[in-house]
User: What shape does this take?
Amino acid sequence: MFKKKKKFKVTLFFLILVLIYGLYALYVAFAHNPGFELLSKNTISYSGLKARIISDNTKISMIKVSLGTKEKSIYPIYQENNLDSDFEEKIISIPFTEEDKVVKFIKKNNLKSLYLYYQIEYENKFFNSNLNKKIKISIDFQPPSIKSVRTDSYVYLGGIGYVIYKTSKDTFLSYVDTGLNTNFYPITIEGDSVDSNLVFFTCGNSPCKNGKIKIVAEDLSGNSVSILRRMKTLKNKNWKTSNIVIDLSFLLNKYNEIFDSNLTTVSIDNFLELNMILREKNNIEISSNTSAISRNLITSGNFYQMRNSKVFSDFSEKRDYYFKDEDKPLMTTYHWGYDLSSIKNAKIYSSSEGLVSYVNNDGLGIYGKTIIINHGLGFYSLYSHLSEILVSVGDKVKTDTIIGRTGESGLAFGDHLHFGTYLQGVPFNSSEVWDKKYFFQKVLNIYNDFIKGPSNRRIKKSGI
Assistant: This one.
């Protein structure tokens, strides 16, 4: 009797194990299978199709994508076999042109929609299987439009430009490309049939690429259109060049201060780490903190140079660094601002009305203690090498607000203020904001005329 009960319990235990194992296998079979997600809003356009393949704890061996009618697949557009490597997700991109058979088929039959078929072969812990599904997608080969472009068609070297244009209502995103590694985005006012856009931009310390700017508009389907406008660069300045011999004792002190280290000697590698690698990192941080567009104006347009100060280093000054008696410079940098000298620990007032958007009391690398103020419309001012900061992020400041004091924090040779101005993350020549008449002509008057109109018009949040 005892043996029968024991045998029954063992049998029941194994049955429970089998049941648990079976339920787990069913869970894996139904829950652990790949995912397919279209990234182009279920729309086909000339920009093609983009999709995300999610493995979800499976090993995918084959992906096949095709297009067709509701009844059948007709045109294979993508296939990848023998996928050996494990991945969590994979992005596939499939472009189209007017010569593709599927595009000709769509146009010939005037189709408004199509079906996307996808097949994924995979294996999980227990099974080899495949996923076969289809998705209905829309067709959009019509790009947005750009019209009524207006600009004065010139910028000063290192200065500010503007362009006004209208885009069709299907525009999701528009911007201006001046040839830099960034785009300049608009202040957009919504209209009933078209949207009006105003972009302030700079071409940096060089002429605009090929003497032109490119205006681009994109829709949600990925269709895009671009037009070029000539932009003459007036060269009213010659950038200075300074030759700087590296002072090892100065470098040692600054290296230990900035990196909080206790080196007793420094080398060329330490110099490059400080003045090249860290400089690039700091400039990226400044750019990211001066890129956002406040679409409402904050400044009155009156910008002032630091009180009782003299300029001893200009914007875009080229600096060649030499080591000892070497003939060739070790590296070259450009100075993205003005160095202004005054008395030691001089009071610093905000250059114009604004909102404090960034404060670094610990020291932003080579820039030391730093403040950034947002003046609206994508314009920012930067104050660095400070000895003391007297404001916090979120503070509203005016031209009589003392925001800090000059100093020599960071890679500074002496007590002074490094002052810079930025437009959507790109430095430009501050003399263009210090010149009240010119700033009103180039920026404020343009903005004020742009926003005039019916009271029901509203500034739109762009797709960026």
Notes: Helices lie at 2-31, 101-108, 248-259, 268-288, 431-434, 436-451. Residues 135 and 154 are 49 Å apart (CA to CA). The longest strand covers residues 128-139. The mean pLDDT is 89.
